UniProtKB/TrEMBL annotation, chains A, B:
Cofactor: pyridoxal 5'-phosphate
Annotated family: Belongs to the class-V pyridoxal-phosphate-dependent aminotransferase family.
Name this protein carries in UniProt: Alanine--glyoxylate aminotransferase family protein
GO molecular function terms attached to this record: transaminase activity
Pfam families named among the record's database cross-references: Aminotran_5
High-level lineage: Bacteria, Bacillati, Actinomycetota, Actinomycetes, Micrococcales
Superkingdom of this protein's organism: Bacteria
This protein's record includes keyword Transferase: yes
Protein keywords: Aminotransferase, Pyridoxal phosphate, Transferase
InterPro entries recorded: Aminotrans_V_dom (IPR000192), PyrdxlP-dep_Trfase (IPR015424), PyrdxlP-dep_Trfase_major (IPR015421), PyrdxlP-dep_Trfase_small (IPR015422), SP_NH2Trfase/AEP_transaminase (IPR024169)
Length: 407, 407
C-alpha cells in the first residue's frame, strides 16, 4: 500500500522549535533546482553568504552554510577547530552545554566543564577563572539554551578569550535572530545556528561564521581528497577526522575555487537565503524587538494565567519561556489536548526539567500578537479542563496590555 | 542592498546530477511544518522508512534518512561500522571510490585500495582475491560511479563477503532508482544514497539501510549523550568518533524510543518521502526500465551525432553516458553555450577525464523522451556552432528509433 501525497495538519508551532516557517520560506523551497555550478547557483550562494554576514553582524569572509541540522554545524566547528587531546572548556547551563561537551569528547578533546544550576547563566568572571585554570584551546559556550530558556551574555567573553589566547565559539542555534548577536563586536571566532528557531525556516541547513583567526586554524589542517587533488595541493598530517565536516574543504567549496566537496542542498540553500532575506528586509534590530515584545507578552500572559515562570527571567531569551506545570495538571496530557483540539504545539523539556515545565516559544514567523493571544486563550481553556483554577481571560488581558503599552 | 526573492532560471538538468526534481517533490517541500514529535511527523517518518524499504528492496528495519547530503550518509556508514585501525578495502574505479577511501582514512581506518582503469569495473574474482589478501573488516564499494558512468555489478559480492566474514557496504548514490538494486538478495550490510540523482529530488537528505548484522556492530558502540542519558543507559568506550553520524543514536531517534538526537529536517523528509512515493507508485522495475530506455536512447543519440562513447558500455549505468569531446571543440565553452542558449546543463568530469569527456544524464524526472530529444537537438546545434561536423538530425533520429523500437 503506497500512501498518498503529504497533507500535514494545520499547526501553530509555539514550542521551543522547530516552529512554523515563514510562508515565503516554504515557497522558496518549491523553486526549481539549478546545477551546482550554474552561474545562478554561484550568485545565490554568494548572496546567501552576504545575507548571513548581515544576520551574524560580521565582516567574516568565511560565512557559509553547513548542509545538515544545527548539530552538524556544531560538530563542524568543533572537529575543525579542536585536535585530539586539545583542551576544551564548556560552561554548562542546560542540555545543549552537555551537547557541546559530548561532541568535543567524541572529537577526543580533553573536555572540562563548569556547571551552574538550570535556570541561571554564568557571570563572565566565573568563565574567566575557569579559563585561567583550564587553559583551553577553545571555549565552547551556548548562547541561548532552549532547555532552560536562558540567554548567556556573551559581550565580555570575547575580550577574555583574546587576553588568554583562547578561541571563542558560540552555539546560537536557539537565539540567533530573536536576540542580539554581534559576532565581530563580541569577538567571536566561530558561531553556528540552525534555521528552525528565530530564523523561521525548516531544520536542515546550518549557518556558520568563522573569524580570520579561526580560518587560519582550520586552513592549517587542510587536506584535499584524492580524486580531485591537483599538483600543488598539499595536505596536513594533522587533518580533521571528518571529511563532511572539514571546514577547510567546505570553505574552498564556497570560495572562489569552488572545489567540489558535497553537492549543495539546493532547496535548503533557497530556504536559508529566504530566512535571512526576510529578516534583513524587516531589519535585524526590528526583528529582535518583535521577539522581545512577543516574548514579554507571552511572559506576562502566562503570569496572568497564574503560572510560575522558571529560571532567572532577567536572563531569559526573548523567544521562549518556561512555565512550571501547575500541581495536579498532567503535563503531557494537557499538551496533547492543546495539540489535538487547538492545533497548537508547546514543548516539554529535558533532564531535570522533564515533566516539570512547559516551554512556550514565540519565534520567527510566530513572534506575532495573534499567535501569542491564541495560544494563551487555548492554554487557559486546557488548564481549566484539567481542573486548574485560572483567572478568566487573565492571560490575554496581560498580553494584550503589553502590546497596548508598546503601541 | 537586500536582494529580491529567488527566481531561478528555467533549466533542463541533463548532467550527472543534481537533476531537475519531480514537480511533486518540489511541491511537497512547501508543505507546512509540524513539530518533530507530532503524531503526524511520527507517522510520516514511519511511512518514509517503509517506502525506502521498497526502494532498497529490503526488509531491514534499520532503514532511515541521514540529514545531510549523500556524502553525509557515506561518512555515517563508515565511521559507525569501522573502528580506528580496522582494515577497509576499497576497490576504486572512479572518483567516488577515492572518496570512500578518503572518508575511511579520515576515520583512521587502515585503508587498502585496488584500482582499475577509469571506464572499467571489477570482476568479482578480483575483489575476492583482494579480500583474501587484505582481510578487511569492511568492503566499501561504489555501485555507480558518475565520474566514469560505470555500474559495478554487486550481485556476487555479498556471498563473497559473507564467506570471508567481511561487512559489505555500497554507495548507491548515483545508481539507486535508475538501476537494479537488491539490498537483501545481494547481501548488503549497508547501503547509502542521495535524492539528487535517479530519485528525482534535491540534495540534502540521504537514505541509508543497514542489515541486522550491521545494526549489531553499530549498537555495540552505543553511547547516549549526557543531558538526555537515563538510568540504565550504558555507553561503550569504543564509541563512534562523531555524534552527528553515530548510527546507533540515529536509529534510536527513528526507533520506537524516539530518543532526541538532531532536529529532523522536516522539509527534506517531505521531499524524501515524495521521491520514494513517486518511484514506488510508478513501480520500481518500471522506473528502472524507463531509465534503461532513456539511457539507451541517449547512448544511440550521441552515437548518431558521431560522438565516441567513453568506457565499457556493457557496464554503463542506465542514467548517464560519457562522451568524448570532439577534437577542436572547446568543451567548457560548448557546455556554457548549451546552458546560456538552450537552458540545458550537461556535465564535465573529474581527474583524468576532466576536459576530455562530457557526461550527459537521463535520470529521475528527466529520464523522459522529450528531455532526451531536446538535449540532442540542442547539442547538435552547439557542436555545429563550434565547427564540428555532425550528421543533420542524426542524434534525434537514432534516439527516436530507440523509443519507436520499444513502443
Amino acid at each position: 500500500m503506497i500512501p498518498g501525497p503529504l497533507d500535514p495538519p494545520a499547526r501553530l508551532l509555539m514550542g521551543p522549535g522547530p516552529i512554523s516557517a515563514y510562508p515565503s520560506v516554504l515557497r522558496a523551497m518549491s523553486a526549481p533546482l539549478v546545477g551546482q555550478y550554474d552561474p545562478f547557483m554561484t550568485s545565490a550562494m554568494a548572496e546567501t553568504q552576504e545575507l548571513y554576514r548581515g544576520v551574524w553582524n560580521t565582516a567574516n569572509e568565511a560565512t557559509v552554510l553547513i548542509d545538515g541540522t544545527s548539530r552538524a554545524a556544531i560538530e563542524a566547528a568543533i572537529v575543525s577547530l579542536v585536535r585530539p587531546g586539545d583542551r576544551v572548556l564548556v560552561p554548562v547551563f542546560g542540555r545543549f552545554g552537555h551537547l557541546l561537551a559530548e561532541i568535543a569528547e567524541r572529537a577526543l578533546a580533553e573536555v572540562h566543564t563548569i556547571e551552574t544550576d538550570w535556570g541561571q547563566v554564568f557571570p563572565a568572571s566565573v568563565i574567566e577563572e575557569a579559563i585561567v585554570r583550564v587553559k583551553p584551546t577553545l571555549l565552547a559556550l551556548v548562547q541561548g539554551d532552549t532547555s532552560t530558556t536562558m540567554n548567556q551574555p556573551l559581550e565580555d567573553i570575547g575580550d577574555i578569550c583574546r587576553r588568554h589566547g583562547v578561541l571563542f565559539y558560540s552555539d546560537a542555534t536557539a537565539s540567533l535572530g530573536g536576540n542580539a548577536f554581534d559576532a565581530d563586536a563580541w569577538g567571536l571566532d566561530a558561531a553556528t545556528a540552525g534555521l528552525q528557531k528565530c530564523l523561521g525556516g525548516p531544520s536542515g541547513s546550518a549557518p556558520i561564521t568563522l573569524s580570520p583567526r579561526a580560518v587560519e586554524v582550520v586552513t592549517a589542517r587542510r587536506r584535499i581528497e584524492a580524486g580531485i587533488r591537483e599538483a600543488g595541493d598539499t595536505s596536513s598530517a594533522d587533518f580533521v577526522r571528518s571529511n563532511y565536516f572539514d571546514l577547510a574543504m567546505i570553505l574552498e567549496y564556497w570560495g572562489p575555487r569552488r572545489l567540489n566537496h558535497h553537492t549543495e542542498a539546493t532547496s535548503m540553500l533557497y530556504a536559508a537565503r529566504e530566512c535571512a532575506r526576510v529578516l534583513l528586509s524587516e531589519g535585524r534590530d526590528e526583528v529582535v524587538a518583535r521577539h522581545a515584545l512577543a516574548g514579554r507578552a507571552m511572559l506576562e500572559g502566562v503570569r496572568g494565567l497564574g503560572l510560575t515562570v522558571f529560571g532567572d527571567v532577567a536572563h531569559k531569551m526573548n523567544n521562549v519561556v518556561a512555565v512550571e506545570i501547575p500541581d495536579g495538571v498532567p503535563g503531557d496530557a494537557a499538551r496533547a489536548a492543546l495539540l489535538a483540539d487547538f492545533g497548537i504545539e508547546i514543548g516539554t523539556s529535558f533532564g531535570p526539567l522533564h515533566g516539570r515545565v512547559w516551554r512556550i516559544g514565540t519565534m520567527g514567523y510566530n513572534a506575532r500578537k495573534d499567535a501569542v493571544l491564541t495560544t494563551l486563550v487555548a492554554l487557559e481553556a486546557v488548564l481549566r479542563r484539567f481542573g486548574a483554577r485560572v483567572p478568566v481571560g487573565g492571560g490575554v488581558e496581560a498580553a494584550a496590555g503589553v502590546y497596548a503599552g508598546a503601541a
